[in-house]
Amino acid sequence: MTAVTLKNVSKVFPGDTLAVDSLSMDVNHGEFLVLLGPSGCGKSTVLRMVAGLETPSDGDILLDGQYANDLPPRERNAAMIFQTFALYPHMSVGDNIGFPLKLGKKNGAHSVPEAVGDMAGALGISDLIDRKPNQLSGGQQQRVAMGRALVRRPKLFLMDEPLSNLDIGLRAELRTEISSLVRRHDATTLYVTHDQTEALTMADRVAVLRKGVLQDVGTPDEVYERPATMYVAAFLGTPRMNLLEARVNVFLDRYVALDFGDQELRLPWHDLRGRAVARYHGENIVVGMRAEALAPVAEGQPGQSIQGRVRFYEHHGHETLVFLDIGATAIIPDGIGDKPDLARSGSKPRRRLTGLFSGFGQPSTERREVDTGPIRKSADLVFRLPPHIPIATGQPITTAVHMDALHYFDKFGKRIDV
Ligand code: ATP
Predict the structure, then answer these.
(1) What kind of fold does domain 4-234 have according to CATH?
(2) Where would I find the ABC transporter domain in this sequence (predicted)?
(3) Taking burial as the number of CB atoms within 10 A of a residue's CB, which of 136, 242, 385, 405 is the most buried?
């Protein structure tokens, strides 16, 4: 039995907004599951339906195996934590934390002051216990809100971007605290965020949503190492995965060429990857390369490599990100959000292509995962350099490509399994 089960759950808001589209997903007992996606993808709506604050338009929600679509929120044994921490302003920190217990909710063997003291200790706010909320910083207020939710020991935590109002340092600190606290309480957590770092560091499993559609679900390693769609590949990881359009040309019994226009990479024919990609002979696919799959080498070195000229670079202290113009076609899936490299390189997204990539032939009738969005020519291929290595705009560079670390996606943006 799972703690939360969603079976083909949809939510349509007035005005025909399809916020959640036939979502099926389980959250196991004791699991910390993060719902990840950009603003407006339907994350909060999912959470609110599990909390009982919204009713599904279609599909079933089960809590502990019991049908729960119509169960009132207070009967769900769930605690919700929002990004704005609505504390009672006239009450002290201690009274805020103890309030749910005083309402007569479960408290086990603990007395209220004891439970409040333990909770404040666990959250590192024991010395603030007599203060009022307006005498606290944002981070301290959020700790109190956490304490108030945790003190009841609910079976299920529903958290909606609880850290997004905090500064970066506090966020990092509270990330670890939240995940260790809820694990200590043996609670199940459904946690909503648009922040991939939170997702990858806190989650047992991550579910990636896009426009109300579940794209992928798996452990942080699984979704990062084997993203199910191009969208997930681009959403997870900094810098964003390089996604390049390539034509597949098979040279039977010899190799499979990934043709980027002016240059190509070759997969050995006898390699499993070569065989999988060979099925797309004569078609365009998208090849994904994370920055870590690339390393500069001296020109003329044996092995697979790509050449380009430095268009620009960014010093980040511990590393320099180098953007090479390699004269290929880069894909940026729609909905990925910020595109700092586009702005910097001066090129603009040419248009929004819905239904097909340029050069991919007939528009598809398949609705999901197809909407790939802006495409631009003259790709920048981003890779990392250690700091202090001299680099100049316009400099020619050859990067070795770690062929085993490449990802392949078909024209619908779906992973090509190898
Ligand atoms: P954010 O991170 O910005 O909170 P989200 O991923 O949580 O975004 P939702 O709040 O679930 O997204 O919204 C999903 C879609 O449903 C959006 O298009 C939103 O405008 C719409 N929506 C949400 N609530 C309502 C409502 N009460 N009435 C109409 N439309 C709504």
Answers:
(1) Rossmann fold (3.40.50)
(2) 4-236
(3) 242
